[in-house]
Specification:
alpha+beta, Jelly Rolls, 8-stranded antiparallel beta sheet
Length: 274
């Protein structure tokens, strides 16, 4: 981290992390994607993940992807971004520092697919809010989009409207999200081109979406969403206790920072930094 990281993140709402993962991890993640059953129906399960496409146009989306194979576990506290997400979303200097992952998604998008424009600072949800208080970042959610394939012109790049995480007015040309509006020609939106292995880090309150993929082949990304440890799973997913127990302590504490306390249990230790 640097003062420039802080300045650019505050200014634009995002950072690009070049060569975030090495070739070996990239290869193993793509091998997991190769093994996904493409005929998996929406709502069906694969290992610990469930197919839950946001819209028909967004493509194949496996939620709870962190449970779908060992390489996904390595992304929980990956050194390329873990200190950054703790810095921006981990409530540094508070009595409950640390981060929680509330959503993990493996996404495959083919030609014609896109993700509608959404978010933005204007009347945004508190969950994705951007904040700085007394020199400390207080973001409700910071996302990592890790590219497993090159994402350039025509590949369906994520598009962002820089600075829109702090906007006080609605985008006058942004249509109704429920209609599935595309970002491709939205004024102020810029594509974020990534090489395989690069990652996009951004506050969820930034106006963003996926441009239309016009090329053949697949756009493959992994999305991890980090927030304060008091957050909760967006869709209520719970982890298998045996699977959790096999993780490293730090990874387990990121996924379950505040374990449940049941009648008769001893007094737990206070949550610490994750």
């Amino acid at each position: 981290m640097s003062e420039l990281d802080d300045f650019m993140f505050d200014l634009n709402g995002y950072l690009i992390l070049k060569d975030a993962v090495d070739e070996d991890l990239l290869r193993r993640l793509n091998a997991e994607f190769d093994a996904f059953p493409r005929d998996l129906g929406r709502g069906d399960w694969y290992r610990g993940g469930q197919r839950r496409d946001y819209t028909p146009e967004t493509g194949f989306e496996l939620h709870q992807a962190v449970t779908a194979g060992r390489p996904f576990e390595e992304l929980i506290d990956h050194p390329a971004w873990f200190d950054l997400v703790r810095h921006f979303a981990g409530e540094e200097g508070s009595y409950l520092p640390g981060v929680y992952i509330d959503e993990t998604i493996a996404s495959i998008r083919e030609s014609g697919g896109h993700h509608p424009v959404h978010s933005g600072g204007y009347r945004g949800a508190l969950r994705g809010s951007y904040g700085v208080s007394h020199g400390a970042f207080r973001c409700g959610q910071v996302n990592i989009i890790l590219a497993l394939t090159d994402i350039g012109e025509g590949d369906g790049a994520t598009m962002v409207v820089p600075g829109s995480h702090k906007s006080n007015f609605p985008h006058p040309l942004n249509g109704d999200y429920a209609r599935g509006d595309r970002m491709d020609a939205l004024p102020g939106a810029v594509p974020v081109h990534l090489a395989a292995g690069d990652a996009l880090l951004f506050v969820d309150g930034l106006m963003h979406g996926g441009s239309t993929r016009t090329n053949s082949g697949e756009r493959r990304v992994v999305i991890y969403r980090y927030g304060p440890i008091w957050a909760a799973s967006r869709y209520g997913y719970a982890y298998d206790e045996t699977w959790l127990g096999a993780l490293t302590e730090r990874r387990r504490r990121v996924l379950l920072p505040v374990p449940p306390v049941r009648v008769g249990d001893p007094c737990p230790a206070e949550p610490g930094d994750r």
